[in-house]
Amino acid sequence: MINENSKGEKQKEFMVRELGVFELRGLARELGIASPTTKKRDELIDLILNILKNGESIEHAGKRKGRPYKKLSSIEEIVNSMTSENAKNSDTFEYESLLTFAQELPSFGDYNNSENGIFDGIIRSGDGYFTFYDRNLNKWVYIKSDIENYEKLISGDKVKVEAVGLCSDNQYEATKIISIDDVPADKYMPRIIEKGEEIICNDAFDFAGGSAKIGRRNAYEKEEDIYENDNFNNLVKYCKQNDLKLIVLGLNTSFENQIVFKNEQYIENFTTVYGTKCMENFNVVIDAINYCQRLLNSGEKVVLFITDIIDVLRNVNECFAKDNKDYTEQSLVIVRKLLTLGRAYKSTNCTLIICYNSLDINDKFLVNEVLKISKKI
């Protein structure tokens, strides 16, 4: 006869192992596990199962700081609280609602004064504060509204701050805003330009032996890597000559491509090297989207060069998927947001160069969505 307790434990373990990364992080928070966003998926699973196997009650497992602690009596309730609502509303995810999934809740008031430094990143809105992820240092920084020059900040701004450590080892609170969009904070004045109504632009420029339409989505099938030809270098020259902001988005790119990107100071570099963790990749995509939107709202004309759109989708999908069979609704929302950036307005525009690998030519998302709304170069 099967022991009911043993059967229940196996069921709990199965349920935990079936959870995606974001669900595991949410569950870890409810169990009081510190800094879940800094831990790998397998590590989170082991820590969660260890708490549950030891029979420790949820309410005594530890209380999170930053928002009211939610007491739940069983693993089933926790899983249901995180997944059932999403299952019912899987088609209602919005871009803005996904931004907080990747970040830790701050523990304001608990300081580690021995930890301080200078950080920079692209800000996004939090719950009554701004926050950003310093990609070079792998730290979260929070900017509260009582700091000088806070009122000048807008989501998507590039900021540099001085900050002091919080109790979590990867959280910091800003004590001084040094610069906003590379201008000293005291001298910086926010700039918002009315984009005007949306228009159809028929202007174009040469790219890879074809033409790219300005203010539209342009799809380019690449058969060799970026560093192996002059297409990217020619694009950089064109943007320089025409005073266009060039943003490059690429995830898990080759080491050779990284040499090209790091040697070109003109570009706004939102790329990661091969082997980067999915959460870091996710944050790079979010930063690129927010920064591009901010430039458009400032009246800048932008070219967004995506090194491989399917690589972006797969890497974002890894943060949400329980398996690798299908693209999740959340990952599709993020990538669709990218595609909507390619538009033209009366006073500004954003041109997308969307590269894809010839090996992915049969990918359903590429065929049914990207190529359907893009001009093929």
Question: Would you summarize the structure shown here?
Answer:
34% of the residues lie in helices and 25% in strands.
Q: Topology, pairings included?
A:
Blueprint: H1 4-18, H2 21-30, H3 41-53, H4 75-88, H5 95-98, E1 111-122, E2 124-125, E3 130-134, E4 139-143, E5 158-166, E6 171-180, E7 183-184, E8 198-199, E9 204-207, E10 210-213, E11 217-222, H6 231-241, E12 245-253, H7 255-263, E13 268-273, H8 278-297, E14 302-306, H9 309-320, H10 329-340, E15 343-345, E16 349-357, H11 364-370, E17 375-376
Parallel strand pairs: 4-6, 11-16, 11-17, 12-13, 12-14, 14-16
Antiparallel strand pairs: 1-5, 2-3, 3-4, 5-6, 6-7, 8-15, 9-10, 15-16
Helix pairs in contact: 1-3, 2-3, 2-4, 8-9, 9-10
The poorly predicted ranges are 57-74, 81-91
Q: Terminal Cα separation, in Å? A: 66 Å
User: What's the shape?
Assistant: globular
Number of strands: 17
CA gyration radius, whole angstroms: 22 Å
Mean pLDDT: 84
Number of helices: 11
Question: Could you state the order of secondary-structure elements as H and E?
Answer: HHHHHEEEEEEEEEEEHEHEHEHHEEHE
Strand content is 25-35%
- Largest sheet: number of strands, sense, barrel closure: 8 strands, mixed
Helix content: 25-40%
Classification by helices and strands: alpha/beta
